[in-house]
Design goal:
With about 120 residues, this protein is an all-alpha fold. Helix content is about 85%, strand content about 0%. The chain is built from 5 helices and no strands. Helix 3 packs antiparallel against helix 4, helix 3 packs parallel to helix 5 and helix 4 packs antiparallel against helix 5.
Length: about 120
């Protein structure tokens, strides 16, 4: 059996693998209800604050991808598909809803639904 090399003896690929593994493990400790909330509220806030909608979209996408990774590991592919669809529909439906109740109330309502679903279907287990 060979020993795992440490320190500067690690190759770049091994260092990047260790970095990814540590980041993934840390990500899995964060409740996905919090992750989707950060994606929806943060994505809208960033887009509104900067005026750069794609920047808000990048935040929305990154949080959604992180949450989906956790859903897959915590609850499997069907729950991941269900929660991912809820997240994307929430984003899409927040736009027409905003015309009726306002932008921030719409974002907060959609976020509440998504956070509750994430908690109920994945985080509470």
């Amino acid at each position: 059996m060979s020993e795992k090399r440490k320190g500067p003896e690690l190759t770049l690929v091994e260092q990047l693998t260790d970095l990814y593994t540590g980041a993934a493990a840390a990500n899995e400790q964060i409740p996905t209800a919090l992750t989707v909330s950060a994606g929806l509220i943060g994505g809208y806030g960033v887009a509104r604050l900067t005026g750069i909608r794609p920047l808000g979209g990048a935040m929305l996408f990154a949080a959604g991808a992180a949450a989906a990774h956790n859903w897959w590991h915590k609850a499997g592919p069907i729950t991941t598909a269900t929660l991912s669809t809820t997240y994307l529909l929430g984003f899409g439906l927040s736009h027409p809803l905003a015309k009726k109740i306002g932008a921030w109330p719409s974002v907060l309502a959609v976020t509440g639904v998504n956070a509750a679903a994430a908690w109920a279907l994945a985080d509470s287990h």
